[in-house]
Design goal:
The protein is mostly helical. Helices cover 68% and strands 0% of the residues. It contains 16 helices and no strands. The longest helix is centred in the middle third of the chain and has 32 residues. It is globular. It is found in: Cell membrane. It comes from Luteococcus sanguinis. InterPro entries: MetI-like, MetI-like_sf.
């Protein structure tokens, strides 16, 4: 058996552009060794410096009233009257205890909770139901219903003062709900007014959010035999959690700080919300501004707690859909 001679194969490596490959490898290694932070660093151009200076100035101007209120609330009136309000020193926490006692903050906080918590819960629940119908079903009155809710928000509350007062004066309610037998001077009447005025805005926001939800999840739910109530309760509401958190934060702040309808519909001082406590801190001939500043910070504390508790969902709810496309 004869041994076959080896076949001489052409040298393929000789025809490769070794020089170019080597240069590409060196360029890649140099690129990988460069600090990624240096690439992301932007030069401080004149426009960028002016932008940061403008934003910093606006931030200081925005925070100055709050910081000044904190500084004033922690100093006595005698010290500021002697050294001036822009002085630094003489710190004390006595203004907070005096404001709490003089303004009856404990009782007024309970009144605000009785008004705010049910009003926010009822508003969001009804708005979710209406928005679900508007977003999921196409019928000829769909747009008209949404327009009616929006038109209600465009009416100024001052224009409805007399009609609402007359209606509440004639509506009879059980004695256990109102001592006068009408909706006047009741927390329930104030809750109804807040729900009526806030329902349109919440419906508009939630309907737009629900329209952006993929229809495939509802089609899959129908195939699985999920009822309409199940689609609303188990699918829609969990997906609307960011928008609900954002609306809950806004509605709590608005209803909690609302004082116009309280002065119109409430007639006894023991039923007024917390916003009326500041009037108790102002004297007839003299007002201690440091005491009022301490009372203002006490009143603002619940809304700040709610915001920081829902901050993550609040920001995600406001920016939802900003990066689509």
């Amino acid at each position: 058996m004869s041994q076959e001679s080896p076949v001489n194969l052409p040298d393929l490596t000789a025809s490769r552009p070794v020089g170019r490959v080597h240069e590409a490898q060196e360029a890649a290694s140099q690129a990988s060794s460069v600090d990624p932070g240096a690439e992301r660093h932007r030069p401080w151009t004149k426009g960028r410096v002016l932008t940061h200076a403008f934003l910093g100035t606006m931030a200081v101007l925005w925070l100055f009233p709050l910081l000044y209120a904190v500084l004033a609330s922690m100093r006595s009136y005698d010290y500021t009257s002697t050294h001036g309000y822009l002085s630094f020193g003489g710190f004390t926490f006595s203004n907070y205890t005096k404001a709490w006692e003089a303004g009856a903050f404990g009782h007024k906080f309970v009144n605000s909770a009785i008004i705010t918590i049910p009003a926010v819960a009822i508003t969001l629940f009804l708005a979710c139901m209406v928005a679900f119908v508007i977003a999921r079903f196409n019928w000829k009155f769909n747009t008209i219903m949404l327009a009616l809710f929006l038109v209600g928000n465009l009416l100024p509350p001052q224009a409805l003062l007399i009609p609402v007062f007359k209606i509440f004066q004639k509506i009879e309610v059980p004695f256990w709900l109102s001592e006068s037998g009408t909706l006047l001077n009741t927390h329930f009447g104030l809750i109804l007014v807040n729900v009526a005025f806030q329902l349109g805005f919440c419906t508009f926001v939630l309907s737009n959010f629900m329209k952006a939800l993929p229809k495939e999840i509802y089609e899959s739910a129908q195939v699985d035999g999920t009822s309409l109530w199940g689609q609303f309760w188990r699918l829609t509401l969990p997906l609307c959690r960011p928008s609900l958190a954002a609306l809950a934060t806004l509605e709590t702040t608005w209803i909690y700080n609302e004082f116009f309808w309280a002065t119109v519909l409430l007639q006894s001082g023991d039923k007024f919300p917390i916003t009326s406590s500041l009037t108790n801190l102002a004297g007839t001939f003299f007002t201690d501004n440091n005491l009022v500043a301490a009372g203002s910070l006490i009143i603002a504390l619940p809304t700040l707690i709610i915001y920081f508790a829902l901050q993550k969902h609040f920001v995600s709810g406001l920016t939802m859909g900003a990066t689509k496309g």
